[in-house]
């Protein structure tokens, strides 16, 4: 068993894989933050999606009144869904890219730009910044993922 | 080739990785179940999102009448989206955590609590149980994921 | 370091893993295409979700008028969400399946049918084709994922 553990440790000790692990964790934590922001706006705006939620957080007021949508809540939820749509491809394609033997400098470039773009995207969505801030930050993350997918397919293509 | 296969088998034979594979598959199957529950409610409540669906499942009744939202359907869909928002981070961070060399007992603790919390969350959402049942089960799964992310970043951080 | 790189290269050189990497990348790129199709319909239908978007793409017209939902946009968005709900399980379970030592021919069969089913599903959703086209293509992809999950659990189950 210690031999197997050693092998796993070698994987996690590989520099490209460590870089992937770091940035994948960062963008996932950023995405998880959206849940807390949604909860914050639901509670402060008193805008809930479930009847059972209104009795806990909206005490003393009519249940029906607080069972509603709120523009700020919906904005965070759209940002959260956009994260899912873009971070899931990054996780999958990024993992395969990290295993496809890229140069460490190229890998860092991809991971850092993607993480930076998604963080800018979140600010652009939540503040909100005027367009095309959000559109551009989305496009940068998208292009980075496409670039990694190209490297993966060039390395492994096996239909 | 058989040498490479042997190496892959060693990965899947590692105890922590086997535990991850087991619980990751369980929570993904649980998430997939939400699709079937949504379909069940759409058919029994006759509440469809697409015009072409109403002609198959809602025969003999007006198409427009069955093109509608239903509270039960929307509840399952919210549960499904909440699964996506929480299980995607578990999959990514959990994989990296399993590769970061945790104690087997600690890994089991994280994986079992997460899977249990998500199963409780599903019952709390669908029955529904009074709050804070759903909120607490969500928070437990969230905290487990944060704990694994902390271990990953402590082990591999490489910005 | 070159020793570690060699080991990673061995993983990516494994034939089953290469097949997984290829098809996982293809279905993720297909899913990412949904973002572009959504953007296309939002711009051509002038139907935006955010006030700040209307001032860029809907110049010369009232902002409020373009802040609306459109049936074509909503259809693509439902297809995108369905992709997320089904491709995330494929990514996770498929990776574990690829590591569980399946026969190459069996692995190809699973990956090809899944990718084909999701491509048919997208056409069935967007054209749209009459039901049960979309339902059947969804069910085929679902069944393939269940089949892989069964193989994974049979190989690694460790509760």
Question: How does this structure look, described?
Answer:
Three copies of one chain form a homotrimer. With 159 residues, chain A is an all-alpha fold. Chain A has a single domain (15-43, 70-156), classed as Up-down Bundle (Four Helix Bundle (Hemerythrin (Met), subunit A)). Helices cover 81% and strands 0% of the residues of chain A. In chain A, helix 6 runs antiparallel to helix 7. The first copy, chain A, starts with a helix and ends with a helix. Chains in contact: A-B, A-C, B-C. Chains A and B meet through helix 1, helix 2, helix 3 and helix 5 of A and helix 1, helix 2, helix 5 and helix 7 of B. Chains A, B, C: Homotrimer; The trimer binds only one molecule of glutathione.
Question: Brief description of this entry?
Answer:
Chain A has 159 residues and is mainly alpha-helical.
Draw up the topology in text.
Three copies of one chain form a homotrimer.
Chain A: H1 2-13, H2 15-44, H3 51-57, H4 63-66, H5 71-99, H6 104-126, H7 133-156
Helix pairs in contact in A: 2-5, 2-6, 5-6, 5-7, 6-7
Hey, roughly how much beta strand do the residues of chain A contain?
under 5%
CATH class of chain A: Mainly Alpha
- How many DSSP E strands of chain A? 0
Q: Any idea what the CATH architecture of chain A is?
A: Up-down Bundle
Examine the coordinates and then state which fold CATH places here, giving the name of the CATH topology of chain A.
Answer: Four Helix Bundle (Hemerythrin (Met), subunit A)
How many structural domains can be distinguished in the coordinates of chain A? 1
Radius of gyration of chain A, CA atoms, in whole angstroms: 20 Å
Looking at CATH, the homologous superfamily of chain A is: Membrane associated eicosanoid/glutathione metabolism-like domain
Give the overall shape of chain A, derived from the CA principal axes: elongated
Give the largest interface.
Answer: B-C, 34 and 41 residues
Average predicted confidence as pLDDT of chain A: 91
What about the largest sheet of chain A?
none
Low-confidence stretches of chain A: 1-6
Distance from first to last alpha carbon of chain A: 35 Å
Query: Regarding quaternary structure, how should these chains be classified?
Result: homotrimer
**Total count of helical runs of at least 4 residues of chain A:** 7
Q: Residue share in helices of chain A?
A: over 70%
Secondary-structure element series of chain A: HHHHHHH
């Amino acid at each position: 068993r210690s031999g197997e553990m050693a092998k796993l440790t070698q994987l996690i000790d590989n520099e490209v894989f460590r870089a992937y692990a770091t940035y994948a964790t960062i963008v996932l934590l950023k995405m998880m933050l959206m849940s807390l922001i949604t909860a914050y706006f639901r509670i402060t705006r008193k805008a809930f999606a479930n009847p059972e939620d209104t009795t806990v957080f909206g005490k003393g007021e009519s249940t029906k009144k607080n069972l509603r949508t709120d523009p700020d809540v919906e904005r965070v939820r759209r940002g959260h869904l956009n994260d899912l749509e873009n971070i899931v491809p990054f996780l999958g394609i990024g993992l395969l890219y990290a295993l496809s033997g890229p140069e460490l400098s190229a890998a860092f470039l991809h991971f850092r730009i993607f993480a930076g773009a998604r963080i800018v995207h979140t600010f652009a969505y939540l503040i909100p910044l005027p367009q095309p801030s959000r559109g551009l930050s989305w496009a940068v993350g998208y292009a980075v993922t496409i670039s990694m997918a190209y490297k993966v397919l060039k390395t492994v293509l096996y239909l």
